[in-house]
Amino acid sequence: MRIALVSSEVVGFAKTGGLADVAGALPPALESLGEEIIVFLPMYHCIRQTGNFESTNIRFQIPLGPHLVQGSLAKSKIPGSNVTVYLVENQDLFERDNPSFGRGIYQFLGSEGAKKDYPDNSARFYFFTQAVLASFPQLGFWPDVVHWNDWQCGLGPVLLREKYDRTENKPLAEKYQKVRSLMTIHNIAYQGNFWKEDMNMIHLGWHLFNLNQLEFHDNLSFLKAGIVFSDQINTVSPTYAREIQTPYYGYGLQGVLTALAGKLTGIVNGIDYKVWDPSRDPLIAGKFDARNIQPGKSTCKKALQHELGLEVNPSIPMVGLVARLVQQKGLDLVIESAWRMMELGIQFVVLGEGDSYYQNALVQLQATFAGKVALNFSFSESMAHKIEAGVDCFLMPSLYEPSGLNQLYSMRYGTLPVVRATGGLADTVTDANPATLANNSATGFSFNAYSSAALFDCMHRAIDCYRNHQQDWIKIQRNAMMQDWSWNRSAGNYQQLYRTIVSSQA
Length: 506
Fold this sequence. Notes:
Elements: E1 2-6, H1 18-32, E2 36-42, H2 45-50, E3 54-64, E4 67-77, E5 84-89, H3 91-94, E6 107-109, E7 115-117, H4 121-139, E8 145-149, H5 155-162, H6 170-177, E9 180-185, E10 193-195, H7 198-201, E11 215-216, E12 219-221, H8 222-229, E13 232-235, H9 238-243, H10 247-250, H11 254-259, E14 264-266, H12 296-308, E15 318-322, H13 331-342, E16 347-351, H14 356-368, E17 373-376, H15 381-390, E18 393-396, H16 406-412, E19 416-420, H17 423-428, H18 434-438, E20 445-447, H19 452-468, H20 470-481, H21 487-504
Parallel strand pairs: 1-2, 1-8, 2-5, 8-9, 9-13, 13-14, 15-16, 15-18, 16-17, 18-19, 19-20
Antiparallel strand pairs: 3-4, 4-5, 6-7, 10-12, 11-12
Helix pairs in contact: 1-21, 4-5, 5-8, 12-15, 13-14, 13-19
């Protein structure tokens, strides 16, 4: 099959979250399965600075409101692969990111210190999806499936069906009519909802601005557009696919998704086992695998304790948290239960940045439990690896978690996750209890209720197992490390979904 994957970020080029990891890892995995795949991404300033691309002779004009706006394509490769990435160029629209001036790829730092969306994000990503579709004839690449990702790509499926299918050039129209769309929702809380008058900018008829298509609370919704007009929809775990059909998790789109449930599926994200492999990770102090966990893991723990200025003592349970410090990640539960958890005699390590409220609360915790709490309010890839390898438990009590990656990294490194059973966490972590210990399926510890009491009880179970049931602990570690959550597994599931899309439209 021919696949075009379209994403607003790709690891190795530009990244703000897990979307980039998916867009960077899935295409090479699909290529290794024999599929022909290309990737589209905007040319941001951070990519331009690397110089890691070459120009092409592909040019196009996109109608943007009353103007025709020029664009072009450059190309590069996903690092470590043969997958071509086409970079959509327009300096005014895309090359404004500059961290030293507080400017990211979607947001900028306002004068009052808060992050704000760029006011023309609708125009920027409308241009991007138009450019992708306009490029197919010049590239001579006609995909069987275009794999659109998140709200930034949401107008792609509707433009394909309402504009490109209907072009006056009949041979071209026939080719576009054979192209199918898959829309992946990575996080339904981010929807791309804009002023309804942007309908004039995107040159789609106002007849589409209705309850069943593009309208959402009197706004133009990019994500809803992609959901309604795609041939299939998927999200990043089976449980999350069910959850977003409910009022609690659906963020207002649950009715649309329930009506379209027949074309909604869930596929858990994978992780790159070349990058996340404790037997050869260059960033960690000791090497180990599922057959020989010690002494390598203990070496990593000792090195982490020493680097963070904590007491170097192998018997003290270490608990790690690597996350954005926001409510979605369950930080309110962490703060509410932190004092009780610290009284279990643990060391607590935090890596991440986010809301000042949570950062200040953690600083107070560190002051109260001097020498037992280590905080790093930034992000460091090397420190993330060291924490995954060195701590005993990994804390992930999310309010919602579409897929989650850190619990997969943790299991790979024999670090047992303590999670709330939601979304991808429910699909990947099997709670340790008498039944799962007996059948060797336990891979961590989980709880259901979104409460600090439930989190504390779960953490108490984990610490008790670590201290008093070492054989069970080792058994759970081995089970966790032997799980297959690689991209090869996920890519096989996507490959089957693409085949379903193509065959159902034949």
